[in-house]
Amino acid sequence: MATTRMILRAIKKRPFLFPASSHSFSSSRHGSTLVVAEHDSGAVKPHSLSAVTAATSLAGHGNSSVSVLLAGSGPSLHQAASHAASSHPSVSQVLIADSEKFKNPLAEPWAKLVHLVQQQGGYSHIIAASNSFGKNIMPRAAALLDVSPITDVTGISDAQTFVRPIYAGNALCTVRYTGSNPCILTIRSTSFPIPQKSNDSKAEASISQVNLSNFDEALIIFFWISADLNKSRYIYQTSQDDEGPDLGNARVVITGGRALKNAENFKLIENLAKKLGGAVGATRAAVDAGFVPNDLQVGQTGKIVAPELYMAFGVSGAIQHLAGMRDSKVIVAVNNDADAPIFQVADYGLVGDLFEVIPELLEKLPEKK
């Protein structure tokens, strides 16, 4: 009991933890948006640049400024900040939190950082991409701020009205946010194209350091209350040694299903993707069978893609898979089952044996220059 009273007294003395006015519309800067961005090798990741595009859509509905939040440590963080500062004319400020605590994207410190920055800046909207980074951090940040997030946004009608898919993408739902500030969103990057750099000269956005002087104290007290201290820790990260484009942003995606039978046969998909300069995708069935790693899965529980060309070989077209690729510009399907659901969404369909079709394509297609 003595420990509990001590913690409660500490909270009352520290308004930055849970300020009473944190949900008041009047306390927030009118029409300002914070983009929580991910970076790698000194550059903002494409998914986060799509979140910047979404934030600029809000600018057309009365939002006056866009700020980008980056966290991490070392020279790559500052390189990424310079990249963010020149990424879009609507970006007015880049905030950097330089600390070893944010070197790895663990939800606990990152969510608390978002909470802290919100208390310092009073933003009306907070946006992140709906990828593993955003899905990991934003729900926890929303819980700390005591607001309900709106996830997988594909369209912005106005500052409080958004469109998102439901029923595995078979219907679109228009949602109006009536809660307190901030309005927290995760967006599907495929619905918000990456902004093209303009040749027009424009001063870069200012770069500022986040005041982390109270962060450690806030983090410790919060974790005492929630009993979450050291519940998660970073172990290691693995990545594919692949020279091809990123699956989530590729212009061409070649996907294989369980009909390829084994990992050796899946090399047909990889060879075709390489010849077309595309990325390799897979169905959940192919991933579960061990043909390819799960970071290549396309679908509702995998990656959402919308390439210029999507080619599906041996893919039946389960509703969960269609949810991840139905926005592709041109869909080509090859399956030996004429009744496969994939043909209902395909622009071009061929009923045939993929083991005959792919080698023929490899033979007749010219090498990509």
Automatic annotation (TrEMBL):
UniProt remark on cofactor binding: Binds 1 FAD per dimer.
Organism annotation: Arachis hypogaea
InterPro entries: DHS-like_NAD/FAD-binding_dom, ETF_a/b_N, ETF_a/FixB, ETF_alpha_N, ETF_asu_C, ETF_asu_C_CS, Rossmann-like_a/b/a_fold
Protein name as catalogued: Electron transfer flavoprotein subunit alpha
Domain Electron transfer flavoprotein alpha/beta-subunit N-terminal: start-end pairs: 33-219
Main location: mitochondrion
Any one of the GO CC terms: mitochondrial matrix
Keywords, comma-separated and alphabetical: Electron transport, FAD, Flavoprotein, Mitochondrion, Transit peptide, Transport
Known cofactor(s): FAD
Binding-site residues for FAD, renumbered to this chain: 258, 283-284, 297-301, 314-321, 335
Molecular function GO terms recorded: electron transfer activity; flavin adenine dinucleotide binding
Family: Belongs to the ETF alpha-subunit/FixB family.
BP-aspect Gene Ontology terms: fatty acid beta-oxidation using acyl-CoA dehydrogenase
Job description of the protein: The electron transfer flavoprotein serves as a specific electron acceptor for several dehydrogenases, including five acyl-CoA dehydrogenases, glutaryl-CoA and sarcosine dehydrogenase. It transfers the electrons to the main mitochondrial respiratory chain via ETF-ubiquinone oxidoreductase (ETF dehydrogenase).
Record's subunit section: Heterodimer of an alpha and a beta subunit.
Listed Pfam families: ETF, ETF_alpha
Subcellular location(s) of the protein: Mitochondrion matrix
Record bears the keyword Chaperone: no
